[in-house]
Amino acid sequence: MALYLWNAKTRAGEKKSGELEASSVEAVALYLKNTGLAPGKVKEKPKDLSEIFPFLAPKVTIKDLVVFTRQFAVMVDAGLPLVQCLQILAEQQDNLTMKTVLRKVKYDVESGSTFAEALGKHPKVFDSLFVNLVAAGEVGGILDTILNRLAVQLEKAEKLRKQLKGAMVYPATVSSIAVACIVLLLVKVIPVFEQMFADFGGTLPGPTQMVIGISNWLQAYIHYLIGGVVAFFTAFSQARSRSLAFHYRTDQLALNLPIFGNIIKKVAVARFTRTLGTMISSGVPILDGLDIVAKTAGNMIIEEELQSTRQSISEGKTIAEPLQESKIFPGMMVQMVAVGEETGSMEIMLNKIADFYDDEVDSAVGGLTAMLEPLMMVFMGGSIGTILIAMYLPIFTIADSIN
After folding, report:
1. Which of 14, 24, 63, 330 has the fewest CB atoms within 10 Å, i.e. is most exposed?
2. What kind of architecture, by CATH, is found in domain 55-155?
3. pLDDT class for 259, splitting at 50, 70, 90?
4. CA 3 → CA 53, 100, 125, distances in Å?
5. What mean pLDDT do residues 120-144 have?
6. 242 vs 230, 239, 248, CA distance in Å?
7. Would you say residue 235 has pLDDT above 90?
8. Same fold, 55-155 and 161-403
9. Which alpha helices (DSSP H) does 257-345 contain, by range?
C-alpha cells in the first residue's frame, strides 16, 4: 500500500484533486472511475523525511492518543463504520507517525482483521491494555463505552506520570542549577581573584587557599569530570536495558529510597487499582487483567508481586490474600479490596482506591517540594556565601596592612 496524489474531472468538467491510499496507480484510476470521475494524472506521493529516516518521526504522545480515542468513540456512537472513522481521523491527524499508523490500521481492518488485531500490530503506539480493552469492547458490542473509559484511563495515567516526574525532576533541576553556578564561580571568577592576590604577594588565609586549590583542580580536570558523568549515565542506561538482574536491583532500590520510594509505591497502587478497575468493568477476565496490569507496571518488583497474585488467584485464592502478603501494597488498600470482593463491587472499590491514592500522591509531591525548597536555598546560599567570604578575607588583610 502507498499514498497516491490524483487529478480528475467530473462529468461537468470540474477539476478535482486529492490523495488516496491504494496498492497501485491502476487501483486509484479504477476507484476514481467507480466514483464517476475521469482520471487524470496519478502519481505516488513523495515520502516525508520521517519515512526515509525513522528516527526523525515524531512520537505519538498521550495527548494524541486521548484525542484519537475520544473522537473515535463519538464517531462509533454516531453509527459510522470503523473504516470511515479511521479514514477521517487519519486525514485530520497533524502527527505524521499517528497518521501513518492509522492508515495501516485502516488497511488491516479493510483486509478482514478485527480492530483490536489491527491495533495490536503497533505496540509502540497502542499498548496491551489498549488492545485488550478494545477487543473486549468489540466482543461486547460496547466499543464506544470502552473507548471513553480508555480516554479517562489514559488521562489519569498521564497525570500520575507527570506527578512522579515532577517529584524526581524538581530537586534534580534545582541541584543542577546550584552546582552549575558554583562551578562557574570556581572556573571563571576565582582565577581573577587569584591573579590579583598574586600581584599583592603575601600569604593567603587558609579558606582562600582551599577555594583556590579547588578552583585549580576543577580547571585542570573539568573535562574528565563531565566525561565521567556522561559515561556513568550512559552505562547506567545501557545496563538497565541489557541486564535483567541489574534492572531488577535498581527497581528494588527505587522502591526502598527514602521519601521517593514511598511516592513510587503510591503511584504504583493508584495505577494498578485504576487499570484493573477499568478492565474488570469492561468485561476483561481478572486473570487476563492482572497479567496485563503486571506487564505495564513499569517496575519489575511490582510486576513480580502482581504475577504472584495472579498465580494465587488461579489456585483458588481471593485477590486480597496474596496482596496482604506483599510488602508493597498498603494494608488499607488490601482491606478495601477484600470488602469489594465480599460485596461484589470490585471495580467501584478499585476506582475509589485509585482516587484516594491520586490525592495521596498530590499531597506527597507537594510536601516534598515544600521540604526541598528551603534545603536547596540553604545549600546554594551556603556554598556561594562560603566562596565569597573566602575571597574577601585577603582583601580585609590587605586593607589592614595599608592602614
Report:
1. 14
2. Up-down Bundle (1.20)
3. confident
4. 18, 10, 21
5. 85
6. 18, 5, 11
7. yes
8. yes
9. 260-281, 286-295, 300-314, 320-325, 331-343
Looking at CATH, the fold of the domain delimited by 161-403 is given as Receptor-associated Protein (1.20.81)
Which residues, 6+ apart, have CB-to-CB distance to 175 below 8 Å?
376, 379
Give pLDDT tens digits for 202-217. Answer: 677 888 888 888 888 9
CB 154 within 8 Å of CB 304 = no
pTM of the entire predicted model: 0.69
Instruction: Tell me the CA distances in angstroms from 132 to 150, 268, 309, one per residue in order.
Output: 11, 21, 20
CA distance 71 to 148: 9
> How does DSSP assign 147-192, residue by residue?
HHHHHHHHHHHHHHHHHHHHHHHHHHHHHHHHHHHHHHIIIIIHHH
Per-residue CA distances from 245 to 238, 242, 248, 249, 270 (Å) = 13, 9, 5, 6, 26
Given a contact cutoff of 8 angstroms between Cβ atoms, the answer to whether 398 and 205 are in contact is: no
What confidence category does residue 399 fall into, taking pLDDT thresholds of 50, 70 and 90? low
Q: What angle do CA 34, 38, 41 make, to 5 degrees?
A: 115
CA–CA gap between residue 268 and residue 299 (Å, rounded):
9
pLDDT band at 403 (very low <50, low <70, confident <90, very high): low
* Residue labelled with grid coordinates 533541576: 173
Q: Which of 211, 195, 261, 255 is nearest to 384 (CA)?
A: 211
Domain map (residue ranges) of the chain? 2-46, 55-155, 161-403
* Residues 29, 7: Cα–Cα separation, whole Å: 10
Chain centroid to Cα 365, Å, comes to 18
Of 28, 338, 372, the residue nearest 173 (C-alpha): 372
At position 194, the amino acid (one-letter code) is E
Span 72-91, pLDDT tens digits = 888 888 888 888 888 888 88
Cell of 375: 534545603
Contact 19, 4 (CB under 8 A): yes
Q: Cell 526502598, residue?
A: 256
Cα separation of 257 and 250, whole Å? 10
CA distance 388 to 384: 6
